Amino acid sequence: MSGVSSIKPRAALDAIPMVDVGALAGADAAAARATAEALCRAYEDLGFALITGHGIPQAVVDRAFATSRDFHAAPLALKQSIAINEFHRGYMGFATSTVVTSTVARNTKPNLSESVLVMHELAPDDPDLLARKPLQGPNQWPSWMPDFRASILDYMGAMEALARRLLRGFTLGLNLPEGLLEPLFARPTLFVRLLHYPPHPATAPADQFGSAPHTDYGCLTILAQDSSGGLQVRAPDGNWLDAPPIPGSFVLNLGDLMPRWSNGRFRSTPHRVINNRSGKDRYSLPFFFDPSMDAVIECLPGCAAPGNPPRFAPMRYGDYLMERLNKNYDYRKDQA
Fold first, then answer.
1. Which residue, 128, 144, 199, 262, could crosslink 133 as a Cys pair with Cβ 3.0–4.6 Å?
2. What is the pTM of this model?
């Protein structure tokens, strides 16, 4: 059976639970169910977990980190040559995003970070690309880094495979039919964000962050972080818990869709980054695994009852996502 650390009752939660997810890829049904139940307990208590046993080769992760560091070390003019396009792909300059849609903080200062966004690849003749539908466009690849594309697409492919195993754990833990959600992910919305945070200024005000308190928009986020630290998660009692950078692990958290699907059982939890621990640059590689833009998000079977009716109205995921992107990113503010 997969190894699962003890998870404390909600009132005493003082650390992010650790879950070995290896059994989700195996044939032992009892072990897979035990792992799914451990994940669901973490989703209920905090909405976050540190996962091991994921099966992702460390070389794939290391190569992606090296690619990110090399990209961010390039001259600004080169990085700006692939400035973010209307399809949310490309370089996003320093301090150009402000999380105004946060439900947990009134954020007025831009995040102290820069990043490059890569999304799901589309064939040149893809009908959604040809129709220029929202977020259905070409990725931008830095011409001065010939290995960039392969490195990041390898990472994205490995993360997607892991996310689909975790999705199995989600449905298994809720006693839903296996594969119930797969049609919603037939054309998934995928993001990899290569983030760089410089050292936090010693004179920065208290309401200045590398990444301001926020929740993620979608389904699952799987984060690789370097050794710098600085990621914090808000516990139910309001305290901020460190998400320690444990070698060989990923940080897993739920986005805003999961409470809607589970009718409030699972949490989409506020988190933030303040890069003031190591005095060094911080790099992280969040992967966002979200459904099709056309997917309708509504309460899943068995998650409502006569005394617990659906708490959220059905919504189209693409509409929800675009509303948030348009409000939070400077390059899209005129579309909000």
1. 128
2. 0.92
